[in-house]
Design a protein that fits this description.
The chain is built from 5 helices and 5 strands; from the N terminus they run βααβαβαββα. It has 146 residues and is of the alpha/beta class. It has a single domain, classed as Dehydroquinase, class II (Rossmann fold). Strands 2-1-3-4-5 form a 5-stranded parallel β-sheet, sandwiched between helices. Bound molecules: 1,3,4-trihydroxy-5-OXO-cyclohexanecarboxylic acid.
Amino acid sequence: MADKPIIFVLNGPNLNLLGTREPEIYGTDTLDDIAGHLDDRARAAGASIDFRQSNHEGHLVDWLQEAQAVGARAVLLNAAGYTHTSVAILDAIKAINVPVFEVHLSDPHKREAFRHLSYVSMGAKAVFAGHGAKSYELALDAALQF
Ligand code: DQA
């Protein structure tokens, strides 16, 4: 039997503060809540998730490379503020053969103009945004079908 697919779920800066961070924009679920729901959903589909958060850009680059090294099926990536600034993260997405699905709780296109540019989108297979914590679940479903 084939190994259980592993989906990396990578979260960028300030997402560790979900629950109390601008709840009117990001909702009241904590990152642990999101991880728990996603874990249940992945298990039900016969997959597993590796859920991580860092406030440091280079960690996200290292983890994207690691996703390839360990043969992850897909990556869900909420690069948070680095979405709009990071050429290094875009380069990492393009350097690996693992499909990356971009996730956002809010819809950056309905917010400030500086959030309308996404470097992550230039390398991602699809974008799931504006559905709060559910954006992650929609992205997981897409990743499992990919
Ligand atoms: C975010 C949107 C980004 O613009 C912002 O910098 C974040 C969170 C989201 O999930 O809605 O930190 O990625």
